Amino acid sequence: MSELVFKPASELAQLIAKKEVSSLEVTTAFFDRSEKLNEKTFSYLHLDRDKALAAAKQADAELAAGNVSSPLHGVPIAMKDVLTTKDAPSTAGSKILQGWIPPYDSTVVRKIREAAMPILGKTNMDEFAMGSSTEFSAYGPSKNPWDLTRIPGGSGGGSSSAVAGFLAPLATGSDTGGSIRYPAAVTGSVGAKPTYGAVSRYGVIALASSLDQIGPVSNTVLDSALLQDVIAGYDPMDSTSIPTSLGSMAEAVRRADFKGLKVGVVKQLSSDGFQAGIKELFDDTIAKLVAQGVEVVEVDCPSFEYAIAAYYLILPAEASSNLARYDSVRFGMRVEPEGNPTIERVMAATREAGFGPEVKRRIILGTYALSSGYYDAYYGSAQKVRTLIQQDLDKAFSQVDVLLTPTAPTTAFKLGEKLDDPLAMYLNDIATIPANLAGIPGMSVPNGLAKEDGLPSGVQSLAPAMQDAQMYRVGALIEQLYVAQWGAPLIAQAPNLEVANG
Question: For the chain, which residues score pLDDT lower than 50?
Answer without folding.
Answer: 502
